[in-house]
Design goal:
There is one protein chain. The chain is of the alpha/beta class. The longest helix has 22 residues, at about 155-175. Helix content is about 35%, strand content about 15%. Helix 3 links the parallel strand 2 (about 60-65) and strand 3. It comes from Algoriphagus jejuensis.
């Protein structure tokens, strides 16, 4: 029995995996899709096809006008699917469940209904204690994309966006290696009689897997570094090739970086924030005109010279090395990413409606419970409590008190 389940047992509450009976007479679930206000964010959580499915199951979906335009979904598409299109942001924010990519602002949280549910990215590096306090004042149950698990312990949103980022990152590298972008003037890959491009990938997770697949397909020579041997062994098996792999140490990594044309920072944060493994000295020793892409910059990154950039101004140079550090790479392919997100959240909303609301989801499914970081006026995530100097309470104990 896991530690979490053992804790629940001790207070007489066990998270179930079989759904409760639908509550008779329960009001239909009301879901709101606000428009993203950041010019950098072009994705939307639900596609019109998913909205049609939800509408057919008596789930009311309210969409703010223009919410899907950046992903090439029109208001008419959503209206035809059964959604209500509204021009008032306040009306959308009054829904039982808000589905959004970027977290809400403090002012937007004030417009939410007390006791409602927010499902969005947390974006830890951008958050503050004020954000947490605003959620708690409204007694909002907040669920973070990054922490959600599936039934087998994986993180579906993180994996889906990592697959997209990994596949896209080599296309970005190719852009900035070209002469038209004042790069080294190299083709990403190789041609007959010319040495292949040298790619170093730091991390051996999902981003690394998909980046490596793309690089190998183009003919590049890749080296993958990670401090977890099982991850290195797994990625070799997944790629089906005898590629270069190594644990991370300053000498070996430094040598690889000195010869690299492309460096991908793809380390996954552990305990909230990444560790720096590429120092400024290592960057200074790289070949001029090479490119660094730090995919994990939203969690601090793993490269000392990396700092967060935007889609409007994605690159800068340090020691004549191009740095691309945009946190939401998947937003470059907003329509693909929206379909991927919709595939994940449509079943979740259907389950929530069947059970009667977000609280029943938390009580019945521990994989959903893991995404919760505020619950009815209390912070329930210990790491966030330490980061912002706020008190936190164990969610299992709060649930036990209610039930």
């Amino acid at each position: 029995m896991s530690t979490e389940l053992a804790g629940l047992t001790s207070v007489g509450l066990i998270a179930k995996e079989s759904p409760l009976q639908v509550k008779k007479g329960a009001k239909p679930l009301h879901v709101g899709l606000p428009k993203e206000i950041s010019s950098q964010e072009k994705r939307i959580v639900l596609t019109p096809e998913s909205v049609g499915l939800l509408s057919n199951n008596d789930i009311q979906v309210v969409v703010e006008t223009g919410a899907g335009l950046s992903a090439k979904f029109s208001d008419q598409d959503y209206s035809d699917a059964g959604a209500q299109i509204v021009y008032s942001r306040k009306e959308v924010l009054s829904a039982d469940v808000i589905l959004k990519i970027d977290p809400l602002t403090v002012d937007e949280i004030a417009e939410m209904s007390s006791g409602s549910c927010l499902i969005s990215a947390l974006q830890l590096e951008k958050q503050s204690a004020e954000f947490i306090r605003a959620l708690n004042e409204k007694k909002v149950t907040a669920v973070a994309f990054e922490y959600l698990e599936d039934k087998v312990g994986g993180m579906p949103v993180v994996r889906a966006m990592s697959e997209i980022a990994g596949s896209t990152v080599m296309l970005i590298a190719s852009e900035y290696l070209s002469s038209v972008n004042e790069g080294k003037g190299l083709i990403l890959g190789g041609v007959t009689g010319v040495p292949p491009t040298q790619v170093v990938i730091i991390g051996a997770g999902t981003v690394a897997e998909y980046a490596a697949r793309t690089a190998i397909g183009l003919g590049a020579n890749i080296k993958i570094f990670d401090n977890h041997i099982y991850k290195l062994r797994r990625i070799k098996q997944l790629l089906g090739q005898q590629i270069y792999t190594s644990t991370i140490d300053n000498f070996t990594l430094g040598q690889a970086l000195a010869e690299a044309d492309v460096v991908i920072g793809a380390l996954r944060a552990e305990k909230g924030r990444n560790k720096i493994v590429v120092t400024e000295e290592m960057v200074a020793n790289m070949i001029h005109g090479s490119i660094i892409i730090d995919v994990g910059i939203d969690q601090g990154g793993c490269i000392e010279t990396a700092r967060m950039t935007t889609h409007d101004a994605p690159v800068y140079q340090v020691h004549d090395i191009i740095h691309y550090c945009v946190p939401n790479i998947a937003s470059r392919v907003a329509r693909t990413a929206s379909y991927s997100l919709s595939n994940i959240f449509t079943p979740i909303i259907l389950q929530m409606a069947d059970l009667g609301g977000n609280e029943e989801m938390i009580f019945n499914y521990k994989w959903f419970l893991r995404g919760v970081y505020t619950y009815r006026g209390s912070l329930t995530n210990a790491f966030l409590g330490r980061k912002f100097g706020l008190n936190h309470k164990e969610l299992q104990l709060l649930l036990a008190a209610r039930y």
